[in-house]
Design brief:
single chain, 228 residues, alpha/beta, Rossmann fold, six-stranded mixed β-sheet, four-stranded antiparallel β-sheet, 30% strand, globular, transmembrane transporter activity, P-loop_NTPase, MacB-like_ATP-bd
Length: 228
């Protein structure tokens, strides 16, 4: 089934009376279970495109359908609820809550979903252990390295058991070993739980793992390759 369908998706910014066309009339379908990398030079529209898919930014024109939901037509409260139960986000800047421990950061979204304390703790500890942070569950972000913070962010994105994950440069601050561990974990979840992953990336290691690679330039799709 099609998880995501975008039609004529466009985002235009007005900067000092100059129009910036960040994304230009993109048509695309992403089916359930894909492991897709969106690549291209800085400023090509990768992050803007990802943010619109996740409802963090609103298109200037065009439509976004996820499942049976027209995301661009949702009211703000509906959009929050939709993201909570369907989308996991991984940001380049981590976006962890500084006053919470690693475990509490991972638990936070599950708390919003209404899971019990016991369920939240069990899943948070399991995810943090899987990303190699089993001994750092009670550390706050300020006591973690950049790579460790990103691993917490990935665990948090997976905690809600999302239907798909949007990851903006998720390996940008990770060493080779950490990157390999994370990508292997994501690939396993993709294959075993059919979670759809969409990456915005410059990282060749992510591109090598991806089974579909979409090249953007100047906000347009230049190439869309499905690997064998």
């Amino acid at each position: 089934m099609n998880v995501i369908e975008v039609k004529q998706l466009t985002k235009t910014y007005n900067d000092s009376e100059v129009e910036v066309h960040a994304v230009q009339s993109i048509d695309m379908e992403i089916v359930e279970g894909e492991f897709t990398a969106i690549v291209g030079p800085s400023g090509c529209g990768k992050t803007t495109f990802l943010n619109m898919l996740g409802g963090l930014d609103h298109p200037t024109k065009g439509s976004i359908r996820i499942g049976d939901t027209m995301v661009n037509e949702l009211k703000p409260t509906q959009l929050i609820d939709f993201r909570l139960h369907n989308i996991g986000f991984v940001f380049q800047a981590y976006n962890l809550i500084p006053v919470l421990t690693a475990r509490e950061n991972v638990e936070f979204i599950m708390q919003l979903q209404g899971l019990s304390k016991a369920e939240r703790e069990k899943r948070a500890i399991a995810l943090l252990t899987e990303v190699g942070l089993g001994e750092r569950i009670d550390s706050r972000p300020s006591r973690l390295s950049g790579g460790e913070q990103q691993r917490v962010a990935v665990a948090r994105a997976l905690a809600s058991k999302p239907k798909f994950v949007l990851a903006d440069e998720p390996t940008a601050n990770l060493d080779s070993k950490s990157t390999e561990t994370l990508l292997d974990m994501m690939e396993k979840l993709n294959r075993e739980e059919n979670i759809t992953f969409i990456f915005s990336t410059h990282d060749a290691r992510v591109v090598n793992k991806a089974r579909r690679v979409i090249l953007l330039e100047d906000g347009k799709i230049i190439k869309d390759e499905h690997k064998a």
